[in-house]
Amino acid sequence: MRVTPQSTFKIPHALAALDAAVVTEEEVIKYDGRPVDWPAWRRDHTLATALRYSVVWYFQEIARRLGEERERKYLAQFEYGNRDASGGLTTFWLGSTLAISPDEQEQFLVKLFTRRLRVSDRAAETVTRLLTQPDGRVANATGEHDFASPWPEGVVVSAKTGAGPTGDGRAVRWIVGHVRRGSRAWVFVSNAVGDADLPAMAAVDQASRALIEEHVLR
User: Fold this and answer.
1) By residue range, what is the domain housing residue 44?
2) What are the pLDDT digits (tens) for 7-58?
3) Is 190 a catalytic residue?
4) Residue 114 CB contacts under 8 Å (≥ 6 apart), including other chains
5) How far apart are alpha carbons 120 and 160 in whole angstroms?
6) Would you tell me the crossing angle of helices 121-130 and 10-19 to the nearest 10 degrees?
7) Statement: the pTM of the whole predicted model exceeds 0.85
8) Any domain includes 100
9) Coil, strand or helix: which one is 175?
10) Torsion of CA 129, 160, 136, 43, to 10 degrees
11) What letter does residue 140 receive in the DSSP assignment?
12) Which residue among 114, 117, 152, 197 is least packed, with the fewest CB closer than 10 Å?
């Protein structure tokens, strides 16, 4: 079932921004003081911190820099969900027109982490590196949260969460990512859709349990 990607779209958005050279890894984008939802958003950000703390205003600026034509181009290039960016330049991925299924998220991640996505190697390397999570934790706008800890020695987890309304009164929760453990690697996608009171960490907790049960993170 396709549903709004919410902040998991920051992965393709960051790839497009680097590939199109509308931002660099080192550039600091200034916070303009507008009211925002979370304390972590109320400061200047680089791409690394904007991904870690899921800073919506930062990626809305990225959307403005890319423009409608390039947004549509990259959605097609990445074969990302329904590829529909008609719901507003700075909002189409936030409970609006863009929708993607868990299976499509998985396919996108496999292409990204096996370097088969149609994007520059430098953009792919940068984004996958910046998605790396702190040991035993996953970070988002609300802070750092336990994620199947403790991890075995040497495990590297790259991930992005997403949460918000679906546009029809329901709520969606996501976590998508990649695990490297020695010579083995996995991609994972966890999605939950429910009523507006669906717990914020529903998808994270679901993924944590599954990755433990499948002996990926234990």
Assistant:
1) 6-213
2) 999 999 999 999 999 999 999 999 999 999 999 999 999 999 999 999 999 9
3) no
4) none
5) 21
6) 140
7) yes
8) yes
9) strand
10) 80
11) E
12) 197
